[in-house]
Design goal:
By secondary structure, the chain is of the alpha+beta class. Helix content is 37%, strand content 19%. It has 4 helices and 3 strands. This is IclR-ED domain-containing protein.
Length: 139
């Protein structure tokens, strides 16, 4: 796990590297869950450990975010864990194409404007694809 802080003067330290959330709660876990098999998704959503994070994490809402994630390639968490703290995640894949992790960005809400999200998403996806390739090359 690695954390790199950008140069923007405001920091979002409400989430930290290594913090664990049920799949489908934070952006990284949503990115991973979106590319799991339908059976694995059903099993994850059958557990109730994510509902402690609020109604936005009920199965119906998570499934909608999973569909959006598959459509655009990256996950967005618009302040669903801590208001004002947003995140984006992109899955990292193994040689079989299964998700094994994710890269994520977190920050304050106004750094994730609708106009900026596509560029951030492309950059995040590019880094995740590069890491996936490097991991495949080492095996």
């Amino acid at each position: 796990m690695v954390r790199e802080d950008g140069s923007f003067p405001l920091r979002s330290h409400v989430l930290h590297e290594g913090r664990r959330f049920p799949l489908g709660v934070a952006s990284a876990g949503t990115a991973i869950l979106a590319y799991m098999s339908p059976q694995e998704i059903d099993a994850c959503l059958a557990r109730s450990d994510r509902v402690q994070y609020g109604a936005a994490h009920e199965a119906t809402q998570v499934r909608a975010r999973l569909a959006t994630t598959r459509d655009v390639g990256w996950a967005l968490n618009p302040g669903l864990i801590v208001e004002g703290s947003w995140g984006m995640g992109a899955a990292v894949f193994d040689e079989q194409g299964s998700p094994i992790g994710a890269l994520s960005l977190t920050g304050v809400e106004h750094r994730f404007t609708a106009a900026r999200q596509p560029d951030l998403g492309r950059r995040l996806l590019s880094a995740a694809h590069e890491l996936s390739g490097r991991l495949r090359a080492t095996r």
